[in-house]
Design goal:
heterotrimer; A alpha+beta (149); B alpha+beta (357); C mainly alpha (190); A: alpha+beta; 6-stranded antiparallel β-sheet; 4-stranded antiparallel β-sheet; 10 strands; C: 190 residues; 10 helices; globular
Chain lengths: 149, 357, 190
């Protein structure tokens, strides 16, 4: 009986955790005109209770050979679960935006590389956990060598 | 005996808004009319049901957005006015009142007239003369024309600017705080608008660009053959019920007597862009649709979504199937409803697809 | 009526707003924002995104146009004319939303109390919201303006560009339709 209860609890936790992820898009995806100048917008999928989720973003980059990190303000949209990121990091250097999110016991992460024309959608990476430092470094390397891996 | 019922006065009675005489007439009628008494109770119950409707709180994001779109120019000109008012009024009461009224009137009238201002012209219209740096303000009915060697920048009220290229001709239609509208007869403009949606419109012979918060270029000839390219935000391009949504990074042609075409991303494969051009003349009779479907990427669902409503049912089915192969179809979007061009279904799908555009 | 705010702005605040005083405009905004948002939200069937858009449009048009406000009508009359125009304009753009209830967009509102109370309140609110959504637009707007801002019939007549008799008629018909639609809810309440 106890075993069944534990299994049920684990199943419930997994159900809450399963599929919690970020989805990124151009500002048009938000349908909010005040986000027209946003660098990109994002939403979360798979969070059972959007009201309890927490999201944050930092810009991680290399500027004149020095590794830098800039905390970003994530602007919530009028529709729950949709957010915008505006560029407040330097225009010089190579940068990625590191997204972190939690929903109950579940976590999600995303690395969104930035290019001269905005975010590089096809190079974005998504994780079921906050991105590690090595994952961030690996994402920055192609930008520094001019590649678009 | 014919009795005139009073159903339309019942809310007024319950809200205490009826004039005394009418109130008495209504009450006298209610005393003898069971039908109207019953209706009165229904109206009363309807009013009481509204207490279940919770008042909503406006999200903080709204004020953030208002601040970011705040018209800066208004504050500078009004700050000057406040300073002048404070200087005169204490010293000369009667004269100050008249002066303030006069200046306020002048400010209002001339501010309205100067809602659009041609700030500068580069080069020299007519050739060989000194460049004109600033031209008087323009209002409804005024034409602005540049020649091969000149260009201009127009300040559109307090919401943005329009750069006018050479050999262009446009007319100011409306310059009110609630709507700014111009007609582009020929040439190219680049609009940069910082305002709520649906405040700035540009008409051409074949379509109207409705600003939804954006920056774009629009060029046209006198027949109405034109091209819209959006660099920021998104634009609704409309003509006689035909609408194309054009987001940043995309373009849309417009043709005389046909209105806006199908939008496409500027980085779409050249084959797709060429095929789309041919499709406009083939009217789905040739092989262009085959090419479009074959080379379309996930992002090109922008193009495919717009093609759905322009294609016949057999082609529409092919377009749907290709879209479904490119990206998952939301659970609340059914194939049948899409093929029927159900408006709500198409809107839901567009909103989901927009995350891939 | 719903006492969303028992404040009205003073003529001094409005004068400062006309002079471009940002702080005064913020006061104006804070005074009216929830009422404007509520009218827009329920007019558009609980669509928060559209309601936010309409609210932003209204206040930005107010900011750019307040110098044109002559003071010969109550300020709230002038403001709600902007609200009605913005809602009508948005409704024209969203033809499908105007005539249907977008149930998929209706969100639940957070409420306090026990779980059972919460559920009951949420269900009641949803039922009333659905019923309001089904009213024809002219009746819906009249009901919402009266309910959320307690405008007098005279003010509503100015806002809606109609006679006071028409206002009374729309409110009578609107409330009667709500009662018809919500019979089952009323039956449960006894």
């Amino acid at each position: 009986m106890l075993r069944l209860g534990i299994l049920s609890l684990v199943a419930a936790m997994l159900a809450c955790a399963e599929g919690f992820t970020f989805v990124i898009g151009s500002p048009v995806a938000s349908q909010q005109f005040q986000f027209k100048a946003a660098t990109f917008v994002f939403r979360t999928d798979g969070c059972g209770d959007v009201g309890t989720q927490q999201v944050s973003a930092t810009a991680e980059g290399v500027l004149k050979g020095e590794r830098q990190s800039v905390a970003l303000k994530v602007i919530p949209g009028s529709k729950p679960g949709i957010y915008a990121v505006f560029q407040t990091w330097p225009t010089e250097g190579q940068w990625i935006v590191n997204l972190k999110g939690t929903c109950g016991n579940a976590s999600a992460g995303a690395i969104v590389p930035m290019g001269p024309k905005g975010f590089i959608r096809e190079s974005a990476k998504f994780f079921p956990h906050p991105a590690t430092e090595s994952e961030i470094e690996n994402a920055l390397k192609p930008l520094m060598t001019g590649g678009k891996k | 005996m014919f009795r005139r019922h009073i159903p339309h006065q019942l809310a007024g009675l319950l809200d205490g808004e009826l004039p005394l005489a009418e109130k008495k007439r209504v009450e006298d009628h209610l005393a003898v009319c069971g039908l109207c008494r019953e209706e009165r109770e229904q109206v009363r119950m309807g009013m009481s049901m509204l207490k279940h409707l919770p008042p909503a709180q406006a999200p903080d994001a709204i004020w953030n957005a208002i601040e970011s779109a705040w018209p800066e120019q208004q504050q500078r000109s009004v700050a000057w006015f406040r300073q002048w008012f404070g200087q005169w009024l204490p010293a000369y009461a009667v004269l100050a009142v008249a002066a303030v009224a006069g200046i306020a009137y002048w400010t209002m009238v001339h501010r309205h007239e100067r809602l659009w201002e041609v700030v500068e012209i580069h080069g020299s219209p007519g050739g060989g003369q000194e460049p004109i740096r600033k031209v008087a303000g323009v209002g409804p009915g005024d034409w602005i024309e540049t020649d091969a060697s000149s260009s201009a920048r127009i300040t559109v009220g307090q919401i943005g600017s329009v750069d006018v290229g050479p050999n262009a001709r446009l007319r100011v239609v409306t310059t009110s705080p609630l709507e700014h509208r111009l007609t582009l007869e020929r040439g190219e403009i680049h609009a940069k608008i910082s305002a709520p949606p649906r405040l700035f419109f540009v008409e051409t012979a074949s379509a109207t660009a409705e600003d939804l918060g954006c920056e774009y270029s629009l060029k046209t000839d006198v027949q109405g053959l034109g091209l819209l390219q959006v660099t920021l935000g998104w634009v609704s391009f409309q003509w006689k019920g035909i609408e194309s949504l054009v987001p940043a990074g995309a373009s849309c042609r417009t043709r005389p007597h046909e209105g806006p075409g199908v939008p496409y991303f500027d980085d779409a494969p050249e084959e797709l862009r060429n095929a789309l051009e041919n499709l406009a003349t083939e009217k789905f009779a040739g092989s262009s649709l085959d090419t479009i479907l074959r080379v379309a990427r996930v992002r090109d669902t922008l193009t495919l979504w717009h093609l759905l409503s322009r294609a016949g049912v057999p082609d529409r089915a092919r377009i749907y199937d290709r879209m479904a192969a490119l990206t998952p179809v939301p659970a609340d979007v059914s194939r049948d409803k899409v093929l029927e061009l159900d408006a709500k279904t198409l809107t839901r799908w567009k909103e989901a697809l927009a995350w891939t555009w | 009526m719903v006492p969303l705010s028992d404040r009205e702005v003073s003529p001094e605040i409005i004068a400062h707003c006309r002079a471009g005083d940002r702080d005064a405009i913020r006061v104006l905004y804070d005074t009216y924002k929830d009422r404007v948002y509520s009218v827009a939200l329920y007019f558009f069937h609980g669509d928060e995104s559209v309601a936010a858009d309409v609210t932003q449009q209204v206040f930005l048009k107010l900011i750019t146009g307040i110098a044109q406000f002559k003071g010969d009508a109550a300020f709230s009359t002038w403001l709600y004319r902007l609200v009605v125009n913005a809602c009508q304009d948005m409704a024209r753009r969203r033809k499908s939303a105007e005539w249907s209830t977008e149930r998929s967009r209706l969100e639940e509102f957070p409420v306090g109390g026990s779980q059972e109370d919460d559920y009951a309140r949420t269900e009641d609110a949803r039922s009333v919201r659905d019923a309001v959504s089904e009213l024809p637009p002219k009746l819906r707007m009249a009901v919402l303006l009266r309910y959320f801002d307690d405008l007098s019939y005279e003010q509503m007549a100015e806002v809606l560009h109609c006679s006071m008799g028409t206002v009374a008629s729309r409110l009578s018909r609107g409330h009667k339709k709500l009662a018809d639609r919500l019979k089952s809810l009323m039956g449960a309440k006894g």
